[in-house]
Amino acid sequence: MIPLLGISTQALFGQLLLGLINGAFYALLSLGLAVIFGMLNIINFAHGALYMVGAFCAYFLLNLLGLNYWFALIISPLVVGALGMIIERTMLQRLAGLDHLYGLLLTFGLALIIQGVFQNYFGSSGLPYAIPRELAGGTNLGFMFLPNYRSWVIIFSLIVCLATWFMIEKTRLGAYLRAATENPALVRAFGINVPRMVTLTYGFGVALAALAGVLAAPINQVRPLMGADFIIVVFAVVVIGGMGSILGSIVTGFLLGLIEGLTKVFYPEASNTVVFVIMAIVLLVKPAGLFGRTA
Asked: Helix/strand/coil (H, E, C) string of the chain?
């Protein structure tokens, strides 16, 4: 027990673990949003629906084709990324140069359509997706029981987030991407196909959402509205970190997951609103977000 607070150490660390897991999902999802907004200036409200499609894709691969979790971890992001590229080419590309609001409304409508179709066919209840055999069980640390799968989710998400940050901030490809958002005409002068780069970037952003969906499937089950439960909080994470900030999305995602977990221990009534309270405070102090740049 923690003195004076009457809270068991096991309960505290258990909630911190749950907070880290949620933080991993927040980080991956907000990272995809930050990549799309930072590189393309598109507010992608369909992100939560595509996160759900990634989880369903893993479910279909297992139950229809017999492909296990490890195949789904590779195939689902590729499939959803391809779907994202089709969406960008056929719909979002037509809104280039217009106000951000048009892209937001289009992707919001797409999210409602996608969720409605899946809910019509599969209902609102969750479909089970088993934890892979290799990651079953856990380790008794004395002060808490640490499930292997949850450890994997946290570590793998962190690796993917840091690899994405490195690619965008430290490589030539990332430099081209950043330059294409600032001065597309100059990038075209180097012989680079900017529209194709935009399409691939959008596909990569939604592939990150699909990857988070596959990781979440064994924990949260596969549900048509699983993305709707997350997306508002994820947008708050992006705003707090700074719209378009890659590092801000990663750090803020994990940090807010931990804060949310601690709030469930010390003041459960505020656990559903603490992220939005923090967002309001941050915007009052630093309107561009913690890692955002002022115009």
From this structure: CECCCCECHHHHHHHHHHHHHHHHHHHHHHHHHHHHHHHHCCCCCCHHHHHHHHHHHHHHHHHHCCCCHHHHHHHHHHHHHHHHHHHHHHCHHHHCCCCHHHHHHHHHHHHHHHHHHHHHHHCCCCECCCCCHHHCCEEECCCCEEEHHHHHHHHHHHHHHHHHHHHHHHCHHHHHHHHHHHCHHHHHHCCCCHHHHHHHHHHHHHHHHHHHHHHHHHHHCECCCHHHHHHHHHHHHHHHHCCCCHHHHHHHHHHHHHHHHHHHHHCHHHCCCHHHHHHHHHHHHCCCCCCCCCC
Whether the per-residue pLDDT at 169 is higher than 70: the answer is yes
Classify residue 12: in a domain, yes or no: no
> Which structure tokens are listed for 1?
């027990």
Domain contains 42: yes
53: enclosing H helix or E strand: helix 47-64
Domain enclosing residue 96, as ranges:
25-230
The predicted-structure confidence for 25-52, as pLDDT tens digits, reads as follows: 999 998 888 888 877 778 888 999 999 9
**CB-CB contact of 29 with 209 (8 Å):** yes
In a domain, 204, yes or no: yes
Residue 209 to residues 7, 11, 265, 281, Cα–Cα distance (Å): 35, 30, 29, 27
Q: Count up the domains in the chain and report the number.
A: 1
* Residue 196 domain-assigned (yes or no): yes
N- to C-terminal Cα separation, the chain = 49
Is residue 202 a contact partner of residue 88, using CB atoms and an 8 Å limit? yes
Helices and strands per DSSP (H, E), number in the chain: 11, 2
pTM of this structure:
0.91
